[in-house]
Please model this.
Amino acid sequence: MISVQKNNFSINEELSKLKIKYNNIGAISNFIGIVRDKSKQSNLVSMTLEHYPGMAEKMLTEIENQALSRWNLIGSTIIHRYGELFPGDQIVLVITASEHRKDAVESCHFIIDWLKTKGPFWKYEKTNRAGFWVEAKETDKKEELKWKT
Amino acid sequence: MISVQKNNFSINEELSKLKIKYNNIGAISNFIGIVRDKSKQSNLVSMTLEHYPGMAEKMLTEIENQALSRWNLIGSTIIHRYGELFPGDQIVLVITASEHRKDAVESCHFIIDWLKTKGPFWKYEKTNRAGFWVEAKETDKKEELKWKT
Amino acid sequence: MKILYFSWIKDKLGKSEENIILQEQIKTVEQLVIFLQNKNDIYKDIFKDNKIIKVSINMEVSNFKDSISDQDEIAFFPPMTGG
Amino acid sequence: MKILYFSWIKDKLGKSEENIILQEQIKTVEQLVIFLQNKNDIYKDIFKDNKIIKVSINMEVSNFKDSISDQDEIAFFPPMTGG
Model:
């Protein structure tokens, strides 16, 4: 299941949905991205996530399908928010469920690395001094490349 | 924070505790181990987790400290249950929180791999036909060894 | 042809999208960029270093050498920063 | 000396712990195992293949060659299956 949404999500609710829908889950990995309190130098006021509607959903579906084909997964959830978010707010949720831990753990890692460089989202940080678009990190590209096998 | 307990845990509560206690969290990884519905061949009735009281707490503290020293973590939680559990019940929870995702994701993976071979717990599975002690998997040992660097 | 702009590219242009009628001689993204740069200095400035700008054709990440047609939806954006 | 047993070892012995007075000539885990095996066939059977049994001394995973003393808490168990 993928969703690109403005609203917040509840990890408990999403976990329950997966557990009701599927049997024999033995391992669940999940990742939550959160707006930090601090930007590079100064305190963060807000972070606005811009996205490409349509393409965001398309890319999230693509990455979910890739994860499902590479690992033995029972189910998965990818939720990515957009709009103006504040320190402590949840940005992204990835859940992967499998019988054995290796599949859940690795695929969750894969999805989050992939989102960083292939998810059509752009972050605008407002601090108490200024506002700027967050630049993509070279290290993120490297993280994503390690899954190319 | 580590805990070896009979009672169930709530992932939401544990996440809230971490988020209240620490600032500037940007990434949270977590892993939940769950009792599956099926044993190798037949349906599972229950799984009893035996543990070595004292040593279990000692080993969980040790692994948490190792994770904190190897990765740049803001906080972490390891909860491992013992006693008789039933299909769908939660067994273990690992949470790692960091500023950047790499630290949270890798350390969570490390802790769960390590628990499999170094956590002094033994699993007894009761199916509708018989009962038996679960044997350690060779692959678990291999997973743990990949962290020896 | 619909062209979308994101992030600082949108800010510099002061618009998030525009519709243009694609002239027949424009066959690739590269040629479209030159056409845009000839419009004014803002475009010229934005596309002065192509390497930091990505393009998608119909929501598919693409190359500047790729072919385009008038029915395509093109988007220009800096490297993505999701997650 | 307190000795603890876990998992199928406990089941086979029908007990989860016992207290023994360590004879002076027993200096290592290995020697303790031989002492236990001499008690009866159940111990003999359990320890017939040491490789699948692990030992801890004072809650520290240890080797069968390691030294022990009467104040130690020893535990025998199969490979752990936590998580």
About this structure: The beta strands of chain A are 2-5, 27-34, 44-51, 73-81, 83-85, 90-98, 121-127, 131-133.
